[in-house]
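Meet the record:
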Amino acid sequence: MSQFGSEPVRDPGDLGFDKPRLARLKRWMQRYADTGRWPGGAVLIARHGELAFFGCAGRADVEAKRPWRRDLIARIYSMTKPVTAVALMMLYEEARVHLDDPVEAYLPEFKNRQLLIPDATSLDQTVPVKTKMTIRHLLTHTSGLSLFTNPGILGEAYAKEKLGLALAYGGLDKMVRRIAELPLEWEPGTKWQYSTGLDVIGRIVEVVSGMTLDKYFATRIFEPLGMTDTGFSVPGSEIGRFPPLYEAMAGGMALHEAPQVSEWRQGKVDTFCGGGGLVGTIDDYWRFAEMLRAGGELNGERILSPAL
């Protein structure tokens, strides 16, 4: 098994890859940086637990001209969702939840939901929901919930209230209660729509486990897997490894958030969203992905059954 961060890149041909074609990735990455599509980034490709390709391009700090490095702590946004799903499935394996349980069994605020009527122009144009929302609906984005990026009046309401977006909302419990107060856009189980479903799953993990989501992740997933740089905030001692956040603009990159004032600084985050919010290194996420690829186990630490 590789050492995640210190291992050499294997000959891609030995792992079933075409070396010249993999080399195109570095040129593609550099072209994105040169044309202002992104400031910089990294790509890691592994197979059978062995490193086939790693490349960095561009800058972590445009103003200071610091290059992107492998050990940088990056915002991983919606790649938080697979971690939340694993957390839920760990509770499923312990027979503490069932995928077809109604959400209201754990979160009473989801009782008596309302559904927007077709072509509604205001959030009070609703009828009662006929189908109870289940945990399976949340996991598969078929719950009828919305997201701040979705079009329509419900998506606009989520964006206005920063539901699934704010790292400081007063707690995940408060945010999920507000989600529950808003109507659904579809009957559960009838349509797929990207949503805050995994944020609600995160709250269910908190209720069932009796732990806040950050603590559950840390003790049940990150520590066993050796994901030492992954969490919901960046310690002050590691701010130097946390790059600024940029926005692509005409003519180049505009600074959106400097590390020193970032909302991800330790002590600033109070809402641990299951749908997005984690930060971590590329090698930490490789550990998580390798655990899944290897059937739920990494270096003797079993997180999930291979049956899942």
Q: What stands out?
A: The mean pLDDT is 95. The helical segments are 19-34, 80-93, 135-139, 152-160, 172-181, 197-209, 213-225, 282-293. The radius of gyration is 21 Å. Residues 72 and 241 are 5 Å apart (CA to CA).
